[in-house]
């Protein structure tokens, strides 16, 4: 889906008009789809990623800015925030989205050095982003919205590797505690927890699990719709996640903070095979 096509140019459609947003991990996947949707809704978007070609091309296509940013390195995250502020004089929105998967395997054979690398990106990267974005928002004295990417794996066991699950669960706690501190400045902190959204990471995971190289995003959506959704036949779509982020970033969610918005077709809330008892 091209989120730049058939844009509604009416003022009512510009839910983020004039706002400045920073998206880490914004070159592709949920981050990329959100960057397009933010721009469509009137935001000035800074994309921070390590995928330089993809990020640069996407930023140019939406009239935004791109900066190379390894979120495990605090100084690079700080530079991304400074770019947004120097570009438009403020920062209104942070979507702390950058993350990686794995390593998998048994807890009994887990290599701690692999865990350290994962934590550096998935958890420390979020801490770096909230730290420096909130500084800019506090200085701007106009509030702000911070949205963090967690996962359905944070609320339901057995969906992902042990280290990945641990980091995504930690993000939920971090969002709640930072929401407590930052609320006095009018800054809201929320999470999204997607499930079955066909990002490149999830598609690659299905390829590995199924031992097939021919799996694509449409296949993943179909599988999720059949096996991992209460809305039988309705799998997750990229726009399901990006629209959720848009809502939490916009003033429409102005009284929502410390919340985790789960985007899973109800999968983590009920046992789908019991639906027959209601028939």
UniProtKB/TrEMBL annotation:
Name the InterPro entries on file: NAD(P)-bd_dom_sf, Sc_DH/Rdtase_CS, SDR_fam
Q: Which GO terms describe its molecular function?
A: oxidoreductase activity, acting on the CH-OH group of donors, NAD or NADP as acceptor
Q: Which UniProt keywords apply?
A: Oxidoreductase
**Gene3D superfamilies for this protein:** NAD(P)-binding Rossmann-like Domain (3.40.50.720)
This protein's record includes keyword Signal:
no
| Family the UniProt entry places it in | Belongs to the short-chain dehydrogenases/reductases (SDR) family.
Name of the featured protein: OLC1v1033078C1
Q: Which organism is this protein's natural source?
A: Oldenlandia corymbosa var. corymbosa
Question: Organism classification, top ranks?
Answer: Eukaryota, Viridiplantae, Streptophyta, Embryophyta, Tracheophyta
């Amino acid at each position: 889906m091209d989120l730049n096509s058939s844009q509604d140019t009416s003022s009512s459609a510009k839910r983020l008009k004039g706002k400045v947003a920073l998206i880490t991990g914004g070159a592709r996947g949920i981050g990329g789809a959100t960057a397009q949707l933010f721009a469509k809704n009137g935001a000035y978007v800074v994309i921070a990623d390590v995928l330089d070609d993809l990020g640069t091309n996407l930023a140019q296509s939406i009239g935004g800015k791109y900066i190379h940013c390894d979120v495990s390195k605090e100084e690079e995250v700080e530079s991304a925030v400074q770019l947004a502020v120097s570009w438009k004089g403020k920062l209104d929105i942070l979507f702390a989205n950058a993350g990686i998967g794995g390593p998998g395997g048994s807890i009994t054979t887990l290599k701690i050095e692999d865990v350290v690398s994962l934590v550096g990106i998935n958890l420390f990267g979020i801490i770096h982003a909230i730290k420096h974005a909130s500084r800019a928002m506090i200085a701007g004295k106009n509030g702000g919205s911070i949205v963090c990417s967690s996962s359905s794996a944070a609320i339901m066991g057995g969906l992902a590797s042990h280290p990945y699950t641990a980091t995504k669960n930690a993000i939920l706690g971090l969002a709640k505690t930072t929401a407590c501190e930052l609320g006095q400045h009018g800054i809201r902190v929320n999470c999204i927890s997607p499930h079955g959204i066909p990002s490149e990471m999830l598609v690659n995971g299905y390829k590995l699990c199924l031992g097939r190289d021919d799996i694509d995003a449409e296949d993943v959506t179909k599988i999720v719709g059949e096996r991992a959704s209460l809305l039988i036949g309705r799998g997750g779509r990229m726009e399901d996640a990006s629209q959720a982020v848009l809502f939490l970033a916009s003033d429409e969610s102005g009284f929502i903070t410390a919340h985790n918005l789960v985007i899973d077709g109800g999968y983590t809330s009920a046992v789908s095979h019991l639906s027959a008892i209601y028939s």
